[in-house]
Amino acid sequence: MSPDTARNRSLVSATAVMAAGTLISRILGFIRVALLAFIFGNGTRQAEIYNLGFSVSNAIYFLIAGGVLNTVLVPQIVRAIKNDADGGSAFVSRMITAILTVLGGATLIITLATPLVMIPYTAPEWRTPELAADWRSMLIIAYLIMPQIFFYGIYVVLGQVLNARGKFGPMMWAPIVNNVVSIGVLAVYLVVWGHPASPTETFSTAQAITLGLGGLAGVVLQAAAMIPYVRGTGLRLRPRFDWRGAGLGHVFRLAVWTLLYMTVSQIGLMVSTNITSGATTLGGEGAGNTVFQNARLIWQVPHSMITVSLATAMLPMVSRLAAEHDLAGVAAEGMRTQKLATTVLLPATIAFAALAFPIARVLFGNGAGIRDFQFTAWTLLAACVGIIPFTIQYLCLRLYYALEDTRTPALQQIAIIAVNVVLAVGFTFTPWAGPAWLAPGVTLAYSLSYVFGMIISWHNLHKRLPGLSATDLIRHLVRVTVCALPAGAVAFGISWLARDHYDSFLIVAATVVGGGLAGLAVFVGLARLLHVREVTDIIATVRRRGRPTPATATAEKAEATGAAELDAQDEAITEIFAPEPVMDDPKTVLMPRITADVPPVDQRAGTVLRPERPLQPGSFGVPDAPQYAAGPLDDTAEDEHPITAHAGDELGGRYRLERPVVRRERSQTWEAWDAILGRRVVVHLLPAGETATAQALHAARSGAIATDSRFLRVLDIVESAPLGDAAIAYVVTEHVDGTTLQELLVDGPLTAVEAAWLLRELADALAGVHAHGIGHERINPDTVIITPTGNIKIAGLLLEAGLQPEDPHTEPDTADLDPQRRDVHDLGRMLYAMLLCRWPGGPAYGLGQAPSAGGHWLTPRQVRAGVSPVLDQLTDRMLNPTPRQRMMPIGDAATVAAELTKVLAGADGAPDLERRVRRGAWQPGLAPEADEGYGPLAPPGPEFGPAPATSPAHPSPAHPSPAHPNPAHPNQAHRTSLAEDDTPTITQPAVPADRARSSVDAPATPAGTGRGRWARIVVPALLALLFVLIIALARIFGGGTAPQSADGGPSATPSAAPSTPQAVEIVAARDFDPQGDDGTENPDQVPNAIDGDPETAWRTLNYYNNPRLGGAKRGVGLVLDLGEPRSVAEVALRLSDGGTDVELRVPKAENPEEPPMRSDGDWRTVASQDDAPAAATLRVEPAVTSRYLLVYLTKLPPDGENFRGSIYEVEVTG
What we know:
27 strands; disordered N terminus; MurJ
């Protein structure tokens, strides 16, 4: 699992919905493309017409809107929804109105100009008189599908509005509607019209309209599917044209630059599409744009799943490191990500190379695709050259962004595009640029351009980050290659065994699965043998995400009554819950902290941060129980403390201290604001240069190795930085919304399901770090956080112990336990607390001491009836070295997780915990008086009143002050307290000036006149479009003769034909059977076809069951030698009576000395006829010049119960 996936575990419910939608959409997308290949094939003219009509409109959308909406406009919408007083309704209404107005106008213009728009993306041969009908079909489809630009815009804008409201599912699931509609339209097409009769057949008007309208309908429904969900958010959207002064000018100025960048990035795609689109214009078949896109679809799968996820996870961390000028840290994180990505991508690349043909056959080799799936296989092989360079360059690009350098990567990207264009265009002038090789050649040019891009990106980035080691990366790649090559050889061997069975889908599919699994097993085995650490880490992470093996095994055996038993036992417990206040959306903020008995001091105000007031009688708290995690707090006067910090101080020009959380003898913990990334963080301050500080920093670094999302991450570590007149060290950690377990237990014990599920999550997370030889060492109710989605976060991995080495709540008999075993013991105490609201070794964390007898804690069932016996037994086995009933003690977290997985039997406690957090877990009975200024939904805040800095002041229960929350209890400190008039109290942290937004309805001074603003938008856009048009015209008119020679075969330029046709002598002939066992097909009969005797013939072998040569071959035929290159206008054939499909082909290579006999892929079709009569004439228009001709039979007439073809005579006319 990638770090990105790990970091989003706290949103597991939303992530699961998004992942399911994305997975299903991706599967349906593959089905759609496979169905296209089934109906039209891969390299046919109809496939090109369909795909060009669709792909050009997609490219135009991304050019004018895709990048703008995602990178510029959408963030503004998100910010307005979150910050504006009306929830963003006014601003978002204006924004959507402006976007859709501009996008609608652009769509209208582009649709009307569809013929002009299609020109730069299509080869000029499409516009010749011979292909007029095909060009007309393409334009019909393009006209009908072009309005999708507008509806895609609606979908993206509404989807991002939903994302900002926390509803992620609809945007991921809506494309499923589009795919289902597209699949349905293609299925209807197949039923009504079937397969095309020949590769050169064009669409009728009805067919083109059906495909175009069907594609548009899918996009319209995809956009419409978002509307009900947007209405459900309560966001009041309506058309608003009062744009002046609404803040849209800045947005659209940003959009102009994004548009220009998107224009440049689209040039490479435009040139590639233009070149590959010409593959089917001459012979009707070839590796064109459809093949190029299909191969790209395959190799992009591991990129999108692995590289993008790793880059997304890497970017925030390296951005923080770069902001503190920790270039060594940036380089180290970049190297780690490069190694992880290539560890997966390199074996995937070798797998693609080894299984290219079986993969292409399974996905694109069914139905009509059986004839030309090899085009996709060769293109995929060409892509393999560039997968690793593309990955490395992609990650280098993100490192540049972390360094806040967008200019260098933009220039490098332009250079890459330029190299791609030069290589692609140059390829068209090579002898290999035949129709069958255009897509592989263009893909190879794309791959080589990223080899160049990788080199320049790494070279330039190394100047900025000397810690990047090319030697280290190469050494890693060599080690991975050593493991991957034998795996690829095994997969290729399995593929080779199936080479003669490509007519069987099941055999080929089994080849792909078997070859992939066998190769994977070999790779993993060799990687573990050679100790490739990245592979070991990936395997360990995946196994933890799938639950430890013992847990999985026991879970499968668990009885379905397990969860029911827990639910039944919950009823007795829930009856004694104290009444809880209702709160719609408590925004609590959690952070690691180490506190104890004496409140800390606010340095600026000179007041004491007091603990929460005692609970009212009848609640589950204990008034005299310490409220905090560890150790006595320091009450030293401010001028004597080693750290002098004040609210508003900045660290490294980035982290602004906002609120003190904990003050210890030698350290302080503050809530802070990250000015660069715009979010809250937690900062632990320590005096620089001290031994204890070095130990704490070492603990923070050691804990940073955890990639499990359930641990709050260490974001930054600085050993020395100025603060006032002193030097300090500091550690920056993640900040998360949620509620501590300590707060939840204030209102009573958890249910059995909640307790078991929560402890299982804790044990599973700890098992992962225990495998690395470290423990948490401070698992307690104050370091466990429940997020608003009901999931858990664990604060202070090793860091809590580093900041406060002495834990006052450690039991004497557990002080000498190793860290892992101590964590398990603490898990037992946690389960005890969740079931009884008592703490073994207390009082602590607001909980009373657990009762004991005979030197052992009483078990939960001995204290309270109704506790689950299973959980009671587990508690005893974790806490006591000699459990009751002669049970075995539990000493490792993995076993705890396994046992609890068995107990839960699939039950999930997250939804119940989510409801608890959202109800609010503040102390009952402490609601403020009505005249205190709190809104009706505001939770109470603890008192914070003036007092001398050296003595705690005790609050008056009758007069809680809302003005100052208790920073010592950060969960209380950031609960929102807003009245209906949206007037914030001081409980809300100040919003930085660069993030503040005035009400969207307030008037604002425009940045300039409306004419000036629009001029700055329209002029650059017109210049960009003019640049595109110049490129297109240069391609069309600057190389008018190039396409004729770029086909790679014999020159297709019409020769100066004599006034009357002339017969061309056939010097020799030979049989052509490249797929036969011995490569021959009745060679002794070949002379009969050119002897001038219509009674003698060359006959094929007998084939059974299938007129297409029994399904075993694509065709057989005769190769004719004309002695020298001659002009060929037509070929007259005398065949069997009806039922023969015949093609006339010429070599793709120009003027070869010998005819290509190894594969029919080395020939291109220049004429064909299906169900040819006995006397057939194949006319070549325009005439071709070639020495060798192939008369190729692809379907045979019946001969009794079998099928057999015959060629009696062949005559060639020039």
